[in-house]
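As a warm-up, study this chain.
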Amino acid sequence: MTTVIILLLVAVIVIFAVKDIRINLVTRPTFSMFKKVLPPLSQTEREAMEAGDVWWDGELFSGNPDWQKLHRFPKPELSEKERAFMGEQVETLLAMLDDYQIVQKDKDLPKEVWDYLKKEGFFALIIPEKFGGREFSAIANSTIVSKIATKSLTAAVTVMVPNSLGPGELLLHYGTTEQQERWLPSLAKGDDVPCFALTGPEAGSDAGSIPDTGVVCKGMHNGEEVIGLKLNWSKRYITLAPIATVLGLAFKMYDPEGLLGDKKELGITCALIPTDHEGVQTGERHYPLNMAFMNGTTYGKDVFIPLDWIIGGEKGAGRGWRMLVECLSAGRGISLPALSTATGHLASRMTSAYATVRQQFGVSIGQFEGVQEALARIGGLTYTLESARLMTAGAIDLKLSPSVVTAIAKYHMTEMGRTVMNDAMDIHSGKGIQVGPNNYLAHGYMGIPVSITVEGANILTRNLMIFGQGATRCHPFVLKEMEAAAMEDHDVALKEFDSLLLQHILFAGSNAGMAFVHGLTRSYFAKAPVCGATTVYYKQLSRMSRGLAFCTDVAMLVLGGELKRKEMISARLGDVLSHLYLASCVLKRYEDEGRQQADLPFVQYAVEHSLFCIGQAFDGFFKNFSNPVINFLLKRIVFPLGNHYHRPSDELAQTMCEHMSKPGVFRDRLTHLCYVDENAGTGVMENAFLAMIDTHEDFKQLRKWQKEGTIAKNLELEGAIAAAAEKNLINETVAERMNQANELRKQAIAVDNFAPGEL
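Now compare it with the structure written out below.
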């Protein structure tokens, strides 16, 4: 038997070591099979695949992430001028906003707010100073939008759109010098308000199917005949369209007469058009889930524009899809994560306060374990949201466009925002559902589905984009192998493929072996860049990185092109990648901020939650994989001793709730973006919270006296305080302090009422 095994090993070594044998017996048949199972890529898919950058996602797909590299990424921080803007202009703006008036009555921002936004450069955060803009970093852009969103989602969306995917962003990256000098100064001053029209009635997530057209022809412009485009379009869901003065437009460009060359179909193109140009129609306004930000339609029929209105000039013809994919990272990596993070900051601060102030059965509801479970989830996800916001925006400040990472951020952060808001609403209960000036949750709750929907619907982002791009872009060899398979010279392609295949086989074998070893040893021998409480998390994430890399290789080998259509299967592998990234963000933030001891329970909760989600995703992958034999083997390699990842413990959740329910440095840091308005519901709740904390021991003693019968049990708080004072159990000063706290408590739990006919 030993001899047979040795002979087999020698045969394998010879086959792979001798190049000619390897090519004939392994590479050539594998190459033929690879070309057959290779998933077909449309032109738009290919451009999306090639656009953007591979960043930390590539490390996570490698099976052996370099954690020191993660720690070396610069800590995202605001500059002095950005901090000054936050402390002055942003604070001034927040004081001007009455969100109930904006949303429920005016359906628009007040004129003075519009004027202030334009005057102070809120629409020019990304525009360089030489054009009159603020030239702020991505992290500043994100922080500004987050802070505003805790007061008014309408105002936040209004600010974020001109600084996200739109004319300003596209001009900076692709515009000609003439276009930049024409438009950027007027956009910076607010003389022009931009919008960008991509989505239409028949083209949403499948933007490559847009029916809007631009046909090259001759026409009159400024009194002379020039070569230009005849445009026809119908767009909807376009934010700022109702008030925009300049329209960014995406369309498919055709040249049937060959006026520009031999190519008849040039592809998706983007152009910049003044909205007062002849034929441009600003259509009806939309009303997205009761939100007051400007959103609507735009149309055009046989609108002629000159070629130099194409973004990038004539050279920009047909390059629109690449432009859009590369610039979508701003919306996916900055704006929508900022809104979701704002939800976490607001919900954490206000819900922890409400759980302290609101009493049932004689105690604060925050003492009920059911409430604590939801409150801990709010706090843990808020820590994750802020961590991912910082790291993702930080990547963009490194001048990267990490398309997979920003897709992860868009999907998972908006979904976490939804979870956080749902938990906050559950805890607030009746307080949360009665809309009025003092309800600080209602408009955010209404707006959550908007974030879920825009910049690519979440279902398709998860099921098609994250793993679909990640498996190809981030894998060390797959994209190179696809490129080799597409070569016209078969001999050169085979030689290139042979080199890649050998490396790929070693890569897969290494990941399989190490995944199995780490599974048997519970990652005891895995490397970690730090000592202490978080060491185990680095080791477990490295182990799961091995598992992801190996399972991806097997899935692509077995399913081939079918994997593209097996969305439930691929999405689960995408979930593994996503939670590896989110946990990385948490650990990175913990190190960047000096390993704050008070943060540790939240770090533990966040990473353990991600590991649990990774385990669940792998379970779903194994149970539904098409080949039962391979399914069995994969599960035993990745989890040889079983899947032991679990939800964070109840004890950990209770510790977190204690931290969240105490005024102080930690609570302020966890919720530092939450704007507390002394003249609105957030200020009322915060003041009540502080007052109840200050008098906690007094009320605790009062309840004890009632329980003992020293004071009548059936008295309301006011009566009990009076009775205690009458019996000289408390002095006048204490009684006054308790009455003031109780009055603030009643104001905080009260809901808005409206007289008959007022609504």
